[in-house]
Amino acid sequence: MRFIVKLIVVAFALWFTTLIVSGVRVVPYEDTTLGTVLTYLLIALIFGLVNAVVGTFVRIIAFPLYVLTLGLISFIVNGLLLLLVAWISGLMGFGLEIDGFWWGVLGALVMGLISWLIGIIVRPSKD
């Protein structure tokens, strides 16, 4: 259940990011409402897998850079991961389109903030 909630949160954050950041957009595989929603959910799933596998590996390898830059390198890493998601979804014939590297960094920043804010709201209490 927790996985599905996280998937929906990331999909909603991605949708909201495409509204805010003009250099990030999603091309649905079908021009219906259901096709668009499924596209956002599939991109969120791809993002979760890339973040879990590649992101973890990169964060471990780049740990000295994280310490040296006081964590600011995380913006670059997250932007690159978002570009990787755009490339993978582009291979499937639908999905995320990003106009350039800095649009990816800005999109990752906005998406992270929105996911964090929504996560605070939907997180169950520990009472």
Question: How would you characterize this protein structure?
Answer:
This protein has 127 residues and is mostly helical. The protein has one domain (2-122). Helices cover 75% and strands 6% of the residues. The chain has five helices and two strands. A two-stranded antiparallel ribbon has the order 1-2. Helix 1 (2-20) crosses helix 2 and helix 2 packs across helix 4 (73-91). The longest helix is centred in the middle third of the chain and has 29 residues, at 33-61. The protein is globular. The two termini are 19 Å apart. The mean pLDDT is 92.
Major β-sheet strand ordering: 1-2
Q: What is the number of helical segments per DSSP (H or I, 4+ residues)?
A: 5
Number of domains: 1
Percent range of helical residues: over 70%
Mass-distribution shape: globular
Strand content: 5-15%
Query: In whole angstroms, how far apart are the ends?
Result: 19 Å
Please state the CA-atom Rg, rounded to the nearest Å. 15 Å
How many β strands by DSSP? 2
Structural class: mainly alpha
Order of helices and strands: HEHHHEH
| Average of the residue pLDDT scores | 92
| Unreliable runs | none
Tell me the major beta sheet: 2 strands, antiparallel
